[in-house]
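RESIDUES AND SHAPES:
===
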Amino acid sequence: MIMDHVDLKEAITKGETSLGIEFGSTRIKAVLIDRRFETIASGSFEWENLLRDGSWTYNQEDIITGLQTAYREMKQEVERNYGVTLRTVGSIGFSGMMHGYLAFDSTGDLLVPFRTWRNATTGAAARELTDLFQFNIPERWSIAHLYQAILNEEEHVPRIDFVTTLAGYIHWLLTGNKVIGIGDASGIFPIDESTHNYHPTMIKQFDALIAAKGYPWKLEELLPEVYLSGEQAGELTAAGAAILDPAGNLQCGIPLCPPEGDAGTGMVATNSVRKRTGNISVGTSIFAMIVLERELSSVYPEIDMVTTPDGSPVGMVHANNCSSDLNAWIGLFREFSEAMGFHVDSGKLFSVLLNKSLEADPDGGGLLSYGYLSGENITGIDKGRPLFVRSPESSFNLANFMRTHLFTAFGALKLGMDILTENEQVTIDSILAHGGLFKTPVVGQRALAAALNVPISVMSTAGEGGAWGMALLASYMTNKDQGESLEDFLEHKVFKDAEGQEIAPDAADVQGFQAFIKRYQAGLAIEQAAVDHLLETGRD
């Protein structure tokens, strides 16, 4: 039952709400939900990662500005629609891009600029730790960044007091608690499934590995404490309330759930925390999360072993690049239309161009592109060189051009997913997809179904994304029944009446994608040549 305006106003006033704020790769979004899990109000802040001194980062100032802007816009929407000044919230949760490296000294100062998941500069560390642990350590993981800094003998390492993720940093800033949700923690350091904590043997192995360095810390002293979904992980302090709401209206004392990674909120937002389910999050990067029934038989550098927010093992296939290059091309078409004197609505521009791909040849007409704005771990390319290639015999038209850029957005993901389904015989009952690409109906879904040869569902909530998923985790903390699991809470309360659209793979599309992916794999040498020979002054 949908709450009416009067009920919503009362719920807001009483704090019968939950707030999720997610720091995504291109947008910081705040979503306030009611006790029916419907969105009451939202706000956002657009931002971009920056390549500085060879490292992908975000300005620390933008982190705070974005947090405050997203909250302020959400608060203003509440005031406009309900005539209420937001003073309290039932529960709050923060999420952010997983992995990366935020290292602080004992005074709370950031020692080096935030190193994001997008950096492909930790290859040596990742390989050495994978060999030591016999557990895949991806280049994006926080421990790989830390160990690479040690290998590089960076001067800040002896002064480290705390290492965390972006979500963990925001939570610490607003509560004073150095904690992390288990899903986000699983992108910092390997998790022991039996204890729901960092793997103790591997912790000892790491400390032994660096013992000769004589650092004044042990690894476990640097890492945030691990929490499970449903547990309270702190309260909003007076200082934290002043940061979040500089206007001074927000009260302190609001409970906060464990901060989580965007992978975990994606699983929650798509009701994909049960075994044999999966979800795919599409944005600047793309990742698939498949909840596993059993451990994998081998260590694969293409597969991250992480967890759901309640600690179940997950096989994660993460590709660094997805929609950025597609968005850039659509931006070029926008420039052209404006140069011709036509102003085109963004939604219509995306819709027209993406739908054009449905008229294309099944394989994209022999065209080839790589949307590599950064290095791509799955294909072994260590730097970004967006590339479009065709032969004289290719069928070069707009429909094939758009299909090729859609297909390549899923190319690296496909190669990783094949390891799970073909090498490990992992059974997947359902995959739900979410992200801005799916705001245009059918097109992205159909291309993804062709890539993976699996039915793809998109829920009506797909556009809400990770901030909504984080709000659900905050709501779960305060509104769950005694002993109620996260998967039951989602299935029986949040998604019991959810509507969705499933698209099965089209045989011609599947065959076309198979032809495309062969071309994609064969052309990787071209992409590597671009990395080797196309140099950019000040960036390489």
Summary: The mean pLDDT is 93. DSSP finds 19 helices and 22 strands in the chain. The CA atoms of residues 133 and 427 lie 27 Å apart. The two ends are 57 Å apart (CA to CA).
